Please model this.
Amino acid sequence: MKLKSFLIAGLTGLLTLSSCSKFLEEKSQSEVIPKTAVDYRELLTGSGYMTNDEPMGFLYFMDDDVDFFMEYANDESYVVGSYDARYNYLWYTWQPRLADRNGVGDLIAEDPSATAYFRYYKWIMGCNAVLDNIDNAVGSQQDKNRVKAEALAVRAMYYFRLANLYGEPYNRNPQSLCVPMKLNSGIVSGPTPQHTVAEVYTQVVNDLKEACRLMDPLPIARRDYHINQPAIHILLSRVYLYMEKWQESVAEADKAFEQGSKLADMTTLDTKSGTWLTYNNVEVEWVFGGNTQPNQTTYVPAATFLSTFDQQDARLRVGISISEQTFVPLLSKLPSGANLAQTIRASEALLNRAEANVQLGNLAPALKDLNDLRRKRITGYTDEAIADKATLLQAVREERRKEFCFECFRWFDLRRYGMPAISHRYKHELGGDLLQYKLKQGDPMYVLPFPASVIMRNTALQQNPSGIMADRVGEK
Model:
């Protein structure tokens, strides 16, 4: 049966977690209600999996890997005061209004569909519709288990992202308020309060463990744009890393390698960009979502970050190109346009395992993983010997930073590293002062404000402290 379209009538209800409409409703002869496991897999593909639109691409502007490109052949007008420079200014300088307006003054959140919060819950709704009905579908138990496992895994990823956008870091305050959870497509009346960070993480872990239980006995599929077994184990390894459950993180990373995940030798690539984060890379287990590096000609890799790369590191060649016009390093790491651009891949399993092993005091296997990765990234690399735990931990984390830069990893990692102080430079107009905007240690903005439009629709939501701060002022 060809699944042509579905109307999700309770979309606004999911955002407020209140609705009095049916979740799925047949509206015409051209719209088909799913009956088979294949139908539900199509529903999941169209309504549960991320599209090529990335809701949290704004994180690109917020971490310490990015800088504001201000000069072009000594002509500051190339960037200073330009539309792009102003448009993302609020994110780049961590302003409390960033959830509701863009830098050119447009109100962006009158309609909640413009927010990351809305988009993730929209996909959660699609997952819930599948999970509520797949057990009654026509098809083999294997086919139903695969669909159910996929829906659980991608829903878990969305809640993990929501928790790291709008909740405190798990390792800082797991009992603090996070986001509401909706785990079925049924109707809920009235405002719905938030769950705690610990409750959200518990659900994420349970969903991923159940997805593994259902899918691990099945044949492993690769390169079909559906999450597979190794990708689920890598994602669970990441969640355990954030929870500081080190042994569990190691175990899940091991399972990914047992299921065939492997590293690729980047030093042998003859391409400069465009194919690393695709299924052409044998490391990649899952490709999904949209580009996470917007405005790469206005906001560029920070010089201090670039200085951490070995000059023979192939990641410079594959991920960063020098503009022929400006001689400024520009990002070229992710596929552009309508292509899916995000991945879960084997290098994360290795780095998750290395970091967790350092924390466990297992320095020898952690160092082996670090050297194994560097050997496949740096031409002519010679294995390094590191005997000190703190030094090795820092080396692993710096390698993680280089491996996953501009892929929506760094901001979340900074949160779990203790929310360090960072600064961004910005100039508002030609001839104006070069200002430093500072994010202080433990700054409230490490937990993003809820958009006002979302709070208006769910009055039980409590605004985060970042949403009621005074405007952040730059310093000369």
Summary: The longest helix spans residues 141-166. The domain at 250-295+307-318+333-418 is CATH 1.25.40.390 (Serine Threonine Protein Phosphatase 5, Tetratricopeptide repeat). The two ends are 64 Å apart (CA to CA).
